[in-house]
Design brief:
Length: 312
């Protein structure tokens, strides 16, 4: 019996230790759990309820069922704002990926002593306040005095009206968004630094060109990072707001507002806080949530065909 008791006691001690560790872990993450419930999950449930009501803040919510969702199908500005958002995302995500990857490759070949300076220089625009970026680019894209068109004139090209021409408003916004790809550059640079040098050395011995090394070694080895940034940038593109609102719909620039710059989140914001249609805006928010979720699931499904993980 004593032998059996000695064998059982350590198991009880391990069990008690596991319980203490579990409680300690829950204690450490409890601020995040509370914050998530109070500031994220709770408001999400509240917005789901409000999407089924007619609510203008001034009066109690009035339950209307799926009327808000039915109205979304009839609102022409919903289709326009979705088109603008998808158009922007289709242009921005590939361009941001290509530009960020090209800059990361360049930085990866910069001497280590200078690399810190260039990393900081490229990342600084990413932490610039959105309102400041919108104001800056409103001047840069000015068709008469803007630096962009002045530069085009210098090489003999008549620059377009980036601000008012419906055909050039969204390309101008895409151009502005490339200002803030510093975060993506840093992610790609970190991934490039983790690619084993032995792979490049072996490929050189086999006579592989620089392009072959890039396509057959570099891209597969950093495909996980590219996949991550594609998802993040897609979600961010569909939620673009501050810079565009500052440029086209702010108080000082209300007269320049144009449907070509009416993105989905901007229309949502205007419905909620300018027109006080909180129920309708909540329905819009849930439509955007479903769209983002579907796109993310599709991207994850296709990732199995091209994303390589070293541990697999």
């Amino acid at each position: 019996m004593s032998v059996l008791q000695n064998e059982i006691r350590p198991k009880k001690r391990i069990s008690n230790l596991q319980k203490k560790e579990t409680l300690a872990a829950l204690g450490f993450i409890s601020p995040w759990i509370i914050g998530f419930i109070v500031f994220t999950f709770g408001p999400m449930i509240a917005s789901l309820y409000l999407s089924l009501t007619e609510y203008d803040i001034l009066r109690p919510p009035l339950y209307v069922g799926l009327d808000n969702y039915a109205q979304l199908l009839k609102d022409p500005k919903i289709a326009k704002s979705l088109y603008n958002s998808f158009f922007y995302a289709i242009l921005h995500v590939p361009l941001a990926t290509i530009v960020a990857l090209a800059m990361a490759v360049v930085l990866n070949n910069v001497p280590r002593r200078a690399a810190g300076f260039f990393r900081t220089a490229f990342y600084l625009p990413s932490i610039t306040p959105s309102v400041a970026i919108g104001t800056l680019w409103l001047w840069l894209l000015n068709p008469r005095i803007g630096l962009i068109n002045r530069g085009l004139e210098f090489i003999g090209i008549n620059g377009p009206n980036w601000i008012a021409d419906p055909n050039w408003v969204k390309p101008g916004i895409v151009l502005m968004s490339l200002w803030s790809v510093g975060g993506t550059i840093i992610i790609y640079l970190a991934a490039l630094r983790e690619v084993p040098k032995e792979l490049y050395e072996a490929s050189r011995i086999d006579g592989a060109s620089n392009w072959k090394q890039f396509t057959k070694i570099t891209l597969p080895m950093i495909s996980g990072s590219i996949f991550f940034t594609l998802i993040v940038n897609t979600i961010g593109s569909l939620q673009i707001f501050s810079e565009v609102y500052t440029m086209y719909f702010g108080q000082m620039n209300a007269s320049t507002g144009t449907d070509s710059a009416l993105f989905f989140v901007i229309y949502l914001f205007r419905q909620a806080f300018e027109f006080l249609n909180m129920g309708y805006a909540s329905a819009m928010a849930w439509v955007l949530f479903v769209i983002v979720m579907v796109l993310t699931v599709i991207q994850m499904a296709f990732s199995k065909r091209w994303v390589y993980y070293e541990g697999e």
